[in-house]
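Comment thread on ticket #2218

A.B. wrote:
> Attaching the input chain for the structure job we discussed in standup.
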Amino acid sequence: MAIKFLDNIDLESNEIQDVAVENLSSDPTGFAGRIIFNTTSNTLKYYNGTAWVELDGTGNVDSVTATNGLENTGSSSAVVIEPKYSSGSNIVLSAGLYSGTVSASGNILISGASTGTDVDYVTVANLASTINGLLAITFAGDTGDSGDIGDGDTLTLSGGTYITTTGSTGDISIAHDSTSRSDTTSTDSPAAGGTFTAVDSVSSNSTGHVTAINVKTVTLPVAGTMSSFDVDGDATGTTAQTIIDGDTLQINGDGTYIDTLGVNTDILRVRHMTSGVTAGTYVYPSQVIVNAAGHITSITGGSTPGTMDSWTLNYGATGGTTSATISDGDAVTMRIYQSSYKGLFLQNPSANVQNVGLDLTLVDTVTSIDATNDFLTVAVTDATSGSGNNAKILASNISLSQFAVPTADLSMGTNKVTNVVDPTNAQDAATKQYVDDSVVGGLVYQGGYNASTNTPALSGATNVALTKGWVYTVTVAGTFIGTAVEIGDVIIVEDDIAANSNPPVTDFTIVQRNVDLATNTVAGIASFPTANGFATMTGGAAQLSAGAAVTALGSASETVTITTDAFGKITSASEQNIVVTASQVSNFTTQVETVIQSTEFKANIGNGAATSFAITHNLGTRDCMVEVYDNTTYETVMTKVARTTANSVTVSVASAPGTNALRVLIKSLQ
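C.D. wrote:
> Ran it. Output below, let me know if you need it in another format.
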């Protein structure tokens, strides 16, 4: 039987020499890439994934691709190569473009050049001769005779009036000659009724040549005349006046307020006449007269007005006023005394009385006051200030006892109540000092303490706030700020401790419970007497008394004899050769097998899906041999083995084996 390899073989670029592929008399079930030699057909074959392909040495064409103007109009097995006449890759365009002069001896393919539909080639000269024989070109002018142009003839194009022809290789240019033009100018100043000539229009043909112009004679009109015109005004009752040729138009004022003055030939000035009032400044006039046109016609001077020495201003609340004398030249301002006195306003119930009112909607609302500087306005009823009069009082002078009894809980807004006297009745409030003085030396039990979880948090950076005299009992043993505490120990707070302050152990007193003598099952006080083999204790540390010094004793061929005292202390030690009599050896094979089996491991692998198996052998070394065999044929198979750790290996195969199809044997060489 062949050796089975269950994973790929990497030869690291080395050769397989003197090798033969698998010999079979018929084609087996294939898989992609499998190679066999068919001994019936004597051919080498490989499987391409769908069928077996022969490698008989003769070869075959699998496909043909046509290019450069050719195409395969058949199939890959029945190839038909034909010229391609369509698309941009046809046989003509695929040949490329020649931009030079075509040689007369060049060849051109033509279908039916001689007869039928056969394709022949002809020279360029033969084709040109045939074309010349088939073509006849006749040229004719607007006048004169026409003529035919044959092969080899020359056609001459001649210019005429204003036309010039120019010939070059392959081109004839026909140009319109430039024409010189001489322009002249003239001037004239015809009088009224005179005439002058001007070009009225220019005609040209479709080629732009001027074919005619029209010269027109223009006659200027004679000078005009005016026989009359009308003059009218805008005043009521005005009648329009007609001024006829030869009349003189005179513009006059009314003689009272308006007159006119001719300044020169082109200017007539209209002026406002004087009113008869002497120009000047009139102080305190007693009379001013104007006419219907609004002009001042008369001003009568007056006397200086009289003066007032003083007047009396009455002010004060309704029902009582106070008088003040306002002297000549004084000013009286009606206003609220200060703009900060918001809510006050002036009322004007009559022409000579001004009242001051208070509008509370105009007063600012505040949320706090300065008790030592701010005043409250009140209406008092005492005899000193007068019943019903307004008065002010500092906020700090109002005591809580003057307010009504609260009808609900009274919040101090996190503030303190200070300066409180000591209580005398059962329901009186007590100060902190009173309480502290009342419980001096007393302890307040707070409950249990879990020293394992620090619950409640008596220590650390997140400790709770603690009060002097609080007491806790340890309910779960642990460590409290570096000190071991047991169940029943008591922790006393020695001072007030703020929250989150990480207090030191000196802020506490730890009272540990009474401890009795220790037993084998109960922790307690223990002694270490020298009579029991202990040395003299120093600093609280117990140690065994010195015994006999023992060096390295024993070997593979020697055993050791040790002597101890009553307390197990070695007093002497010696070594001697090992001597084993046959009667003293029993079950040797079993013991040896046990030792051997401790260096071996074996297990089945395979589940029909996995290709890699991690196997834990716990032999404690990578120095181990691994072998795998088939559980059906019991033949050794080759797999990939990786010694993953000192206690495990990984076995890998290319295809997933069936359930428990393989067995792994591992042997330690340690």
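A.B. wrote:
> Thanks. Noting for the ticket: The mean pLDDT is 80.
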